[in-house]
Amino acid sequence: MGLVPWYDGRDGMYGWIWRHLPGNTWVRALISLVLVVAVVYVLFQYVFPWAEPLLPFNDVTVDNQ
Amino acid sequence: MAATTDTEHEEHTGASASRPSAARRRPGPVAMAVSVFGELLITAGLVLGLFVVYSLWWTNVVADRTAGKQADKVRDDWAHGRDGGPGALDTKNGIGFLHVPAMKNGEVLVEKGTSSKILNDGVAGYYTDPVKAVLPMSGKTGNFSLAAHRDGHGAKFHNIDKIKKGDPIVFETKDKWYVYKVYDILPETSKFNVKVLSQVPKESGKKKPGHYITLTTCTPVYTSTYRYVVWGELERVEKVNADRTPPKALR
Question: Which parts of chain B register pLDDT below 50?
């Protein structure tokens, strides 16, 4: 793994994103962080609340269904 | 891009100086596909991990905040005598508070209904379906059946397994304390077993009408495979005094 430089194109989508971010390493790291926070926000605010009732983890009532 | 590559190249001189330039050719489509697939798997793992964090932590944060607000509103309405006119029961907000010392979670606001929309606010709900709960304030015999979350969304009945026979369950309304005593526990039953909500819950060994309370939640923890049921029977009703001094069972 150490033999393959991280920027040589074999790095899939995260590498692709990293290479397409502007600025130097610090700016890129900052933008990455903002992106991660944005993704987590969208997941917590919209995706998980939507997905939760579809998953059988938290039904507490007895019913006929 | 060329300039960037150069600086990056310099940063990694130690690793790449000795490498033949052929090794830096663009990888084939298969290698790309495999690496993207691998990253998708890692991403899926991270998302699932985040979902656990969301379910077991974040929903509690949100629910406790909502429940706290609603509880404050109920207390405020009580203090100012805004209960919707004489005899009227304000069921839109909470109808009262459940105190179960054995669960060590303070007071739980009780609201009408057991839909996830209600329960997700970090409260306990009384059943309206499939069997309608009989509220203790009505004075009629019947079963006051309640449900709340075991995990996440406030997890108000998380410690339901800590309740033992003989433990008190106290329901507090504007002007009464209803003190129940736990007399039977069903640690595991089918989620289709609606008979546990009957006005006379026969499974608990009762044959005659009385004032019962039933707590239901899911079990085992973190899943919804079965239901956990706790039954109690009304022992006495105390009037709330000016200081709202809790009954002896809570002290």
Answer: 1-18, 22, 85-87
